[in-house]
């Protein structure tokens, strides 16, 4: 039976520290080892060393923090320098060990996303596999954890979120007695109308589609809805949880009357989180996300759909071999993924071609070589060594024609492991280095009798910093300047092509038949309609696409990581950082730091810590910048969408189209595209101001800390020399851990080269 939870934090039961302290430590060590089961021995060794480094660093920081708190606990006023230290230490102590790596499996219904996840986690039928008229109905996240059982949390729409959708569904189904024959026929065949009826009947029963909004508010849903809006399922075995989970995340378009009580609340489900216990195949810290390809009619679910895509650092575009060979679906999904790279955190895209077992074996092997040619030729973001994976989940289980390796499922697992290992290495290196810098400063504070004079003579550095900040502002302007010309060119293209684009969006092959209520749904959602069976409709994105066609290469270049270019933003920030660090070294040598590198190291590392946080700030802001064009157009067109949504009666579809066309014409004439340009440029300016303000404030605080003495900034603190010495050893050991990892990997590669090749199964 499903459990419901409110996720309210509970206080732990009181326990005797002497009885439980040591067993808890041992259990944590055991859990830590269990988390690495998905890795081969060489990678396990590296992860354990990095984990040990991080754990010991956190312990040193915690001990230092406690000593500082104790040394100022009874003071009436705490010096600014000590406040700075305490806040920085607390921030580092509370910093998460590792943010999850989200790998989005992005594809249309029936592409094989669920089958692929099942193969990767080695559970053949764990997630429901799409059959005829059956599909995964919501976003499903799968991760491994330290739990002992298989667990799923089903998150439902809040009461207010459902009321908003219910209001739109009833508006969509509203009609007057004036409907003519054409409109009745369209009503009967309309996809949006069918889905609206389906949702209401599943939740409220037969005849619900005939009731108005107020009547449905008073109606009692057929299924039981927990007050927490969260349903928790648990099971000892994967198969047991799969049976419990199946009716929540799999939906049938027909014969709904016979569905279970669980299926009766399907329209309320927002997303599902599944946790596997200590997987030997998927490491903890990786989240596989099954993402439907089109979004959702509900505003909150559709917003979650976009945000989920944008937070994925990796996107696998899933297309079955028949669609890749004969259709444009995979290219549409690739284009949506490329947009995620432009606006979100995605750094890596791959096309995963599924169901290759449908091909004759020689054709399958040939297809691996030719799929690349079917990708958009101008997608620079797709330049990667492993761009295309051709997999067969079915053949992975049967291995009648292919070996396990040839199905490429193990290759995807290897990619996941290496991605996590690399992220852990970079995170621990940065964490230990930043902690070492703080301990350098703390130790200096504790030695007031040995305070070096060089800290008191840094006025020249202030002027240098102000000059460099001005140069940074100019460099940022230079980065953003190249966007202007393609932006203006794109606007010219949009002005000449918007009527043709809009006309294509408003025309269907069968005329208005089957489109009346879909168009109404588009208007109710301000130009956007996401169906689980039709391609996503977004009039705002379509109208602005000529602009994005022009700016995308330049926009991507501004925010691109990796190879530095003149137009890339981060290399200029890195250059600013290096110039400050070089100036620090120059001042240090001139003032006698040649024989005392600790103080120099602190200032250099603190600059890295201050400027290192800018990249995440920039990544968060770039989505708002990128979407500012479509957001601006959507806001300008909102009145005409609202007017069109109210149309009913005879020839309603044509009248709605006419209102939309006239509304767009009017807004374009009044400067809609030019306003969109201004708003994007304003967003760029806000990003520039945010960067410079953060740099100015943080560097000023650091210089004040490093140069002031007269206001009681320094005081005698508790002795932290032992913590400093331990931190110094940990910092030195970073290189040893990295060297050990390289050595082990080299030995493993050598042994693999020397070992006999694996023989595949006999071919018939």
From TrEMBL:
One MF term in the entry's GO annotations: GTPase activity
Region (Disordered) residue spans: 1-35
Gene3D superfamilies associated with the record: P-loop containing nucleotide triphosphate hydrolases
Extent of Basic and acidic residues compositional bias: 13-23
Top-level taxonomic group: Eukaryota
Domain Dynamin N-terminal: 103-323
InterPro entries from the UniProt entry: Dynamin_N (IPR045063), Nuclear_GTPase_SLIP-GC (IPR053082), P-loop_NTPase (IPR027417)
Protein name: Nuclear GTPase, germinal center associated
Protein's organism: Rhinolophus ferrumequinum
């Amino acid at each position: 039976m499903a459990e419901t939870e409110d996720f309210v934090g509970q206080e732990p039961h009181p326990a005797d520290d002497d009885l439980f302290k040591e067993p808890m430590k041992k259990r944590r060590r055991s859990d830590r080892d269990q988390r690495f089961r998905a890795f081969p021995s060489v990678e396990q060794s590296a992860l354990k060393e990095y984990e040990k480094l991080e754990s010991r660093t956190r312990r040193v920081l915690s001990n230092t923090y406690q000593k500082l708190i104790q040394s100022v606990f009874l003071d009436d006023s705490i010096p600014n320098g000590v406040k700075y230290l305490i806040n920085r230490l607390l921030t580092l102590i509370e910093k998460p060990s590792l943010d999850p790596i989200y790998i989005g499996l992005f594809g249309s219904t029936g592409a094989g996303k669920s089958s692929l996840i099942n193969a990767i986690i080695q559970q053949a039928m764990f997630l429901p596999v799409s059959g005829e008229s059956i599909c995964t109905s919501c976003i499903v996240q799968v991760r491994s954890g330290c739990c002992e059982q298989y667990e799923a949390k089903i998150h439902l729409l809040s009461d207010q979120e459902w009321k908003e959708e219910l209001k739109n569904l009833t508006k969509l189904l509203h009609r007057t007695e004036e409907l003519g024959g054409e409109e009745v026929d369209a009503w009967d065949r309309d996809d949006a109308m069918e889905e609206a009826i389906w949702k209401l009947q599943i939740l409220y029963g037969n005849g619900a589609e005939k009731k108005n909004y107020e009547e449905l508010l008073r109606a009692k849903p057929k299924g039981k809805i927990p007050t927490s809006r969260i349903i928790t399922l648990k099971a000892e075995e994967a198969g047991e949880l799969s049976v419990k989970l199946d009716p929540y995340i799999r939906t049938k378009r027909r014969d709904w009357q016979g569905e279970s009580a669980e299926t009766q609340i399907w329209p309320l489900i927002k997303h599902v989180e599944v946790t596997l216990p200590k997987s030997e195949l998927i490491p903890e810290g990786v989240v596989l996300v099954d993402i439907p390809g089109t979004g959702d009619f509900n505003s909150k679910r559709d917003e979650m759909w976009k945000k989920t895509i944008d937070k994925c650092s990796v996107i696998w575009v899933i297309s079955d071999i028949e669609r890749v060979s004969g259709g444009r679906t995979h290219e549409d999904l690739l284009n949506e993924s490329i947009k995620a790279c432009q606006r979100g955190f995605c750094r890596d895209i791959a096309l995963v071609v599924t169901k290759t077992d449908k091909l004759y074996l020689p054709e399958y092997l040939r297809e691996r070589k030719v799929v690349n040619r079917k990708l958009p030729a101008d997608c620079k973001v797709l330049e990667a060594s492993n761009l295309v994976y051709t997999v067969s989940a079915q053949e992975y289980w049967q291995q009648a024609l292919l070996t396990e390796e040839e199905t490429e499922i193990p290759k995807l697992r290897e990619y996941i492991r290496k991605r996590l290992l690399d992220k852990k290495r970079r995170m621990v290196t940065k964490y230990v280095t930043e902690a070492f810098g703080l301990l350098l400063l703390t130790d200096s504070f504790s030695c007031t009798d040995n305070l070096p004079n060089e800290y008191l003579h840094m006025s020249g550095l202030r002027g240098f910093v102000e000059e460099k900040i001005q140069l940074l502002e100019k460099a940022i302007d230079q980065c953003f300047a190249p966007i202007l010309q393609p932006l203006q060119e794109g606007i010219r293209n949009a002005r000449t092509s918007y009527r043709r684009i809009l006309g294509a969006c408003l025309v269907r092959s069968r005329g208005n038949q089957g489109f009346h209520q879909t168009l109404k749904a588009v208007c109710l959602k301000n130009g956007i309609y996401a169906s689980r069976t039709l391609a996503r409709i977004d009039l705002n994105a379509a109208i602005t696409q000529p602009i994005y066609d022009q700016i995308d290469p330049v926009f991507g270049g501004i925010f691109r990581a990796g190879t530095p270019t003149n137009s890339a933003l981060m290399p200029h920030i890195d250059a600013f950082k290096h110039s400050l660090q070089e100036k620090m070294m120059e001042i240090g040598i001139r003032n006698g730091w040649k024989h005392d590198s600790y103080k120099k190291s602190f200032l250099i590392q603190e600059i890295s810590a201050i400027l290192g946080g800018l990249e995440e700030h920039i990544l968060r802001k770039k989505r708002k910048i990128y979407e500012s064009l479509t957001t601006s157009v959507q806001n300008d067109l909102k009145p005409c969408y609202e007017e069109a949504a109210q149309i009913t009666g005879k020839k309603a579809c044509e009248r709605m189209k006419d209102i939309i066309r006239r509304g767009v014409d009017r807004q374009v004439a009044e400067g809609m595209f030019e306003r969109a340009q201004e708003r994007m440029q304003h967003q760029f300016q806000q990003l520039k101001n945010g960067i410079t303000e953060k740099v100015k404030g943080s560097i000023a605080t650091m210089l004040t800390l490093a140069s002031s003495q007269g206001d009681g900034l320094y005081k005698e603190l508790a002795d932290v020399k032992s913590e400093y010495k331990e931190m110094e050893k940990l910092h030195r050991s970073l290189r040893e851990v990295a060297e050990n990892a390289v050595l082990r990997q080299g030995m493993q590669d050598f042994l693999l080269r020397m070992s006999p090749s694996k023989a595949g199964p006999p071919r018939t």
